[in-house]
Design a protein that fits this description.
The strands form 3 sheets. The chain has a 7-stranded mixed beta sheet with strand order 1-2-4-5-6-7-8. It has a 7-stranded mixed beta sheet with strand order 9-10-11-12-14-15-16. It has one domain: Metallo-beta-lactamase, Chain A (4-Layer Sandwich), CATH 3.60.15.10. The protein has about 325 residues and is α+β, with helices and mostly antiparallel strands. Helix content is about 20%, strand content about 25%.
Length: about 325
């Protein structure tokens, strides 16, 4: 259970189990055996086209956000004003990563939990990457939005093996210097130290291999790929802009955690924002700049496939998700 005083670290989720099974009318005579139910879902990947780029969302898993992690005016968190709370379904959330094939590079943006955190409901990104037709060794660039466990765990096995052996990994220097600092970790609350230790363990084999790189501010990482600083959630929290044939995509990391609350009330923060004031400011400014523009947006904690666009609606915003299609098309 997350403790209210903890201002650092990654997520904790309520795992969703016990989905009800419903019997269907098969039209068979009484006593006939019904077809067995199948509990497997479809593979957790979704792709679309952005100019000449192929964008693939990769699901790492799902759960439910805890209402107590939201920080703000009660009327914003409880729009009805009755204090009755939000239903667990209104707080459903996912954890996703994104794969961008530019034709020159195969770029992974965030790597999911990888079994380092979150339990059995998570850790599926690697399997879904392979289901999507790729192998880990084909990834040559990994871009990290920040160093929380649910975004980096999929980089490294518990035994210290690099899962993406040919990838150059990039992270903002401010995040690197914060989470990989033994001195800062030693001063952190006991509950937060696990997240520092995870970041250090996950990064270590890439650092040793010379595959771990830091950057500051806005840099061009590859053709059509640029960093987009969005500090607040963590010191070096960073999004990434992709541009091809005039089409734009922003992968904004953890700029938002609870879509059903924060799209209407961007001022609401979460207890694990390191700097909640800056996080709220960045969120409000970014949403205002994106609303009404034809910019595709991707966020790890938006409902899968975690891609869509923003539209202004009153004092808040409406999320317009990318519609599913079996065809690899521009959406």
């Amino acid at each position: 259970m997350f403790k209210s005083g903890l201002m650092l670290g990654g997520f904790a989720w309520l795992l969703m189990v016990g989905q009800p099974a419903f019997a269907a009318d098969t039209g068979k005579e009484p006593g006939a055996t019904a077809a067995p139910a199948h509990h497997e879902q479809a593979p957790g990947f979704f792709r679309l086209r952005l100019g000449d780029f192929e964008i693939t969302s990769l699901s790492d898993g799902g759960g439910a956000f805890q209402e107590g992690w939201l920080v703000g005016e009660p009327a914003a968190i409880h729009p009805a004003g009755d204090g009755a709370g939000l239903s667990s379904h209104s707080l459903d959330a996912t954890d996703s990563g994104f794969l961008v094939n530019t034709g020159e590079h195969l770029i992974l943006i965030d790597a999911g939990t990888g079994g380092w955190w979150g339990g059995a409901s998570f850790g599926r990104l690697g399997k879904n990457l392979e289901r999507a037709g790729y192998k880990p060794e084909q990834v040559d660039i990994v871009l990290l939005t920040h160093l929380h466990s649910d975004h980096i765990g999929g980089l490294t096995t518990r035994s210290g093996k690099r899962i993406f052996p040919n990838a150059e990994v990039y992270v903002a220097k401010a995040d690197n210097d914060f989470w990989l600092s033994p001195e800062i970790a030693a001063k952190a609350p006991k509950e937060a130290q696990e997240f520092f230790l995870t970041a250090q363990a996950v990064a270590a084999p890439y650092v040793k291999a010379g595959k771990w790189h830091t950057f500051e501010g806005v840099i061009d990482i590859a053709h059509g790929v640029r960093s987009h600083p969005l500090p607040g959630h963590t010191p070096g929290h960073t999004g990434y802009d992709f541009t091809s044939q005039g089409q734009q995509l922003l992968l904004w990391g953890d700029i938002l955690h609870s879509p059903n609350v924060q799209f209407q009330h961007p001022e609401v923060t979460v207890v694990f924002d390191v700097d909640p004031t800056t996080a709220a400011t960045e969120r409000a400014q970014l949403m205002s700049s994106l609303a009404g523009k034809d910019v595709l947006v991707g966020g790890p904690h938006l409902a899968f496939p975690s891609l869509g666009r923003l539209r202004k609606a009153g004092t808040g915003y409406v999320w317009e998700p990318a519609a599913y299609s079996e065809n690899w098309v521009q959406r």
